Each structure stands twice: as structure tokens, then as C-alpha cells.
User: What shape does this take?
Amino acid sequence: MRQFVVLACLVLQLYSTQADTVSFSNQTGLKFSFQNMVESGANVPPSNLESLTLFTNPYDAIQFKPSAFVAVESKLGTLETNSLSSTINFTALSNAGLAMEKLLIDIEGTYYEFGLPGQTSVLQTTLSLDPIKFTIGGNTKTWSPSMNVTRNTTDKTWAGHLEVTKSDLQSLFNSPSLEVTQLGVESLATVSATAQWGNANSYLTFLTYTLQPVPEPSTGALLAMAAVFGLRKRRA
Assistant: This one.
């Protein structure tokens, strides 16, 4: 009984629910914090994204493991389509004013397609992360192009990777000198399946957001800068 109570408390700490939303607890890494994390959607609650893990090596990252995020199985002979989606919102904050160099977004999943022998089957499965919106200082922009998600037909897996750099955000917000220390992120993850005379399933198994800070100057670089500064000072 005591173990059950402890487990229930841990679950409540992980996320709380409201109408059509699930709120996850704030996570603090070594350089950045992930705050105000909210999942929303027509089928929420319960959470589609389920489990949240914080990683700090080599960079701060949050990873959702949505094992229950699945689409449809068909009924034989009828054309059926089903989809499931969740929108995740969060704010990334620098812990000590260190600017962001890159935001990496990775999406992975699995799928299954099976057509009946002797039948003209219609089988389609999709996994997407689109659109993606960024907010800086109350100004929101939609990122384009969207992530390119590819499939490996041998092991029936999905994979997608997107890198958003500081330069990308400077161009998107038309601010060449922009230093990003606070960034709002909104992305819509969707799996869907269509089948006739067969079965088709789509699964989203991992959704990861990683923040890389602007590289700090090395000790050698700092000494070189100090030497140059000292030389200029003596010449003056």
C-alpha cells in the first residue's frame, strides 16, 4: 500500500491535468530550464506524451516517450482513416543568461502495414511534426520548412531531425543581433493511418528537444584576447 501511495505521488508531481490539457513539471538542466510545459489536444487528457525525462549530457534535453501515442487498425474491406495528435508548448530559459546556439528536435516512431494477399489494399501511415512556432518577446513566428520525417522500410521505423540555429531565429524574427535567452516553442505531433483490406498502425515512440548554448571561449582564447588587449593598451 505504501509503495502505491509513493507511486501515485510521483505521477502527480510529473503532470497535472486540466480540461483538454496536461501540464508537466518544470525541468532544470545545467544551462537551460524547460518551463510551462503543456500538452493539449482533442484527445487530451489523458496524456498522449505520457513520460518525460530530462537529460543533461552532453546538452540539456527533454524527451517525451509517448508509448500510447498510436493510430488506427483497419477493419477488412472498409476504407478507414484515423489520426491522433498532441500540441506541446514550453518555454526554454537560460539559467545564467547564456544565449542559445541551436535547438535540435528529434522525432522517432514505428509503423506497421499489412495488406491481405490477393486484394488491392490501400495502406498509408504518416508521422509528422508540423507546424512549429517560436515566440520571442511576445512575438510569434511559424518555422518553415517543416521537419522531413523519413521511414526505414527494413525495420519499420520513422526518424526525423531538425536543427534550428541562432542564425535561423535571427532571420525569422528579422533581428540580426538577436541573442536568444528565452524561447517559446509550440509543435504539433501527429500520427495517422489509412487502410483497406489490411492493417496499418503508426506509433510515435520518442520526441526530443535539445538546447545547445553558444560555445564559451576556451582558456587559450581568453589568454589570447587578454594578450591582444594588453598589447593595444601599451601601444596607446
About this structure: The chain is about 15% helix and 55% strand. The chain has a mean pLDDT of 84. Residues 219-235 form the longest helix (17 residues).
